[in-house]
Amino acid sequence: MLKRLYQKTLTLAGHRQADKWLFGVSFVESSIFPIPPDVLLVPMCLEKRERAFYYAGLCTIASVLGGLLGYVIGMFFWTTFGDPLIIFYGLENEFALFQNQFAEHGFWYVFIFGLTFFPYKVITIASGLVAMDPFLFIIASVISRGFRFYIEAGLLWKFGERIRGFVEKRLVLSVSVAVLLVAVLVFGYKIFKG
């Protein structure tokens, strides 16, 4: 089912209203949809390289707005929508791990996981559930999601089809490993010093 949904989403990149689809997928992915907007962003940036940064901007704005929907789900509709959504995606364990940490490190969780392959919807819903400061949530989301999408768009704009394989298969993983390594070093240093 997920593979079919992925293929269906991919076909939207060639749609005459692809911009709107990119915005819509970026929005819903941050709260409920399992397919990341990169599926559309990559082919659209390659098709119209001069619009790559515009597409990255669309992804960023929509992703942050969709993240706010996830925040609202966590804050006001957890028992109705949030809990079943987390169970549907089989993310109960991941969600439980982060729930207790948000009070102290919420900004960094949103920032770090907004850059990585980790399902962003888990972070947005968790942020609302623990009532993270909405201003910090928005700032962390804008920085992390913007960084992720603009890096992709910039690489595709500069190198075109030559870098497609790297962007599609390795970029998010590479950024994820680098960000998580830095996070582990920082938290390890704090624990060692403290």
Structure description:
The protein is 80% helix and 0% strand. By secondary structure, the chain is mainly α. The protein has one domain. Helix 2 packs parallel to helix 4 and helix 9 runs antiparallel to helix 10.
Helix fraction bin: over 70%
Distance between the termini: 48 Å
* Total domains: 1
**What is the number of helical segments per DSSP (H or I, 4+ residues)?**
10
How would you name the oligomeric state of the polypeptide chains in this document? single chain
Question: Order of SSEs, N→C?
Answer: HHHHHHHHHH
Shape descriptor reads globular
Work out the number of β strands. 0
Give the biggest sheet: none
- Uncertain residue segments: none
Whole-number mean pLDDT: 82
How much of the residues is beta strand, in percent?
under 5%
Structural class: mainly alpha
Rg (CA only): 17 Å
